[in-house]
Design goal:
376 residues; two-stranded antiparallel sheet; binds iron/sulfur cluster; single chain; 2 domains; alpha/beta; 14 helices; five-stranded mixed beta sheet; globular
Length: 376
């Protein structure tokens, strides 16, 4: 069995009580069946306490008090971990922020960037985003893909290498977003038709009606609705770091028409990329990081196309947070601010299932149906 990890894997260390955006807050934490059985078997005061922390209903979650996990101590630490009872922590808590997937005899481990420490490591290591062989202690897989097909697995890895090489070429981010879209769309139709060997599909094949490359991969009308509707999702509060972003965003874009917003976003992206080339590197690194995660986790369902479209939404939101900061005269070299923006966008959007569902639905209605005339 081979384990591969993201290049900065071994630098991770949990910030514990110093964490500014702890994973013990703001999530719904489900309790997997194995952990639930341990709770049922646990006796005495601990057993009583654990059972009281479970929600009612079939799908068990950890109860939250004041938005925080019921097992969090006043000092902000995990009570179960402090007691050395890690086996009683839900599986997701034992593994997070690792994202570990097993396919066949291989395992790949990256990080969710919804943790402030991993967002920092990503930004500090963005010139070296790659998977490396790992020989350390075994890392428990969060997902196991049970159906294994060697040819399909090899195809996925070959496709991924090809896409990563393209991202690492000197192609600009607007060109990458656009051309990879056509590529995944083509792959999707070949997978559906099962007509050719998918790894032979070239990235730069025929691209219909080539338009000028723009930073507005999506019309800004879609991004605006995501920020002003989906992002809020009824739970947007004054304590939420994205509340400030949404207010600042609305001040700038709220007065514009959709066409003006498209032009404004495009012009500002060009301006900041020229002035701060490191931001361009960040967008490319994010695309590479997303590609590593996406192609491995789409293995079973072959949903590259849909997942890729979601990735372009997250990328445009990261770019939007930079545009808003730039227009408001913030220091664009401030890494702490970059970490906060990235960490919050990932936590709030990418790892919130109901928001992800809303965004997918929006893309189906407002992008795919219009562009492709069908639903996936
Ligand atoms: S979010 Fe990351 S750094 Fe913060 S407590 Fe959780 S694992 Fe640790």
């Amino acid at each position: 069995m081979g384990t591969r990890v993201i290049s900065f894997y071994e630098q991770f260390e949990c910030l514990a009580t110093k964490c500014p955006n702890t994973c013990c807050r703001g999530w719904r934490i489900s309790i997997d069946n194995e952990t639930r059985e341990r709770y049922e078997k646990e006796e005495g005061a601990e057993g009583f306490r654990l059972k009281a922390t479970m929600t009612f209903g079939e799908d068990k979650e950890v109860r939250r008090f004041f938005g925080r996990c019921a097992n969090e101590t006043k000092e902000g630490l995990c009570r179960l971990q402090l007691k050395g009872r890690e086996e009683l922590m839900p599986e997701i808590c034992r593994i997070y922020p690792r994202r570990s997937i097993r396919i066949g005899d291989d395992e790949e481990v990256t990080f969710e960037l919804s943790c402030p420490m991993t967002a920092r490591l990503f930004l500090e290591n963005m010139s070296d985003i790659r998977m490396v062989d790992y020989e350390g202690d075994e890392i428990a897989p969060l997902w196991i893909q049970h159906k294994f097909n060697e040819k399909h697995y090899d195809d996925i890895l070959a496709i991924r290498d090809k896409v990563i090489d393209y991202i690492n070429s000197d192609a600009g981010i607007s060109e990458l977003m656009s051309n990879l879209y056509y590529y995944y769309r083509k792959l999707h139709s070949h997978v559906m038709a099962q007509d050719i060997d998918i790894k032979t599909v070239p990235i730069m094949g025929h691209i219909p009606d080539r338009e000028e490359y723009k930073y507005t991969f999506y019309s800004f009308a879609i991004i605006d609705k995501i920020i002003m509707n989906d992002l809020k999702d009824g739970r947007f509060s004054f304590q939420d770091a994205l509340y400030d972003f949404s207010k600042a965003y609305n001040k700038i874009f709220g007065k514009m028409t959709a066409a003006q917003a498209d032009d404004f976003f495009n012009d500002k992206c060009e301006e900041i990329i020229n002035k701060y080339p490191k931001l361009h590197d960040k967008y490319k690194a994010y695309l590479a990081y997303y590609t590593y995660q996406m192609l491995f986790s789409s293995y079973e369902y072959v949903t590259f196309y849909k997942e890729y479209l979601l990735g372009n939404v997250y990328l445009m939101l990261i770019m939007t947070s930079d545009v808003v900061d730039f227009v408001n005269g913030k220091d664009m070299d401030d890494i702490e601010r970059q970490i906060k923006n990235l960490n919050n966008i990932e936590k709030r959007l990418r790892h919130n299932l109901s928001i992800k569902k809303n965004i997918s639905h929006r893309l189906e209605e407002e992008f795919i149906k219009i562009k492709e005339g069908y639903k996936f």
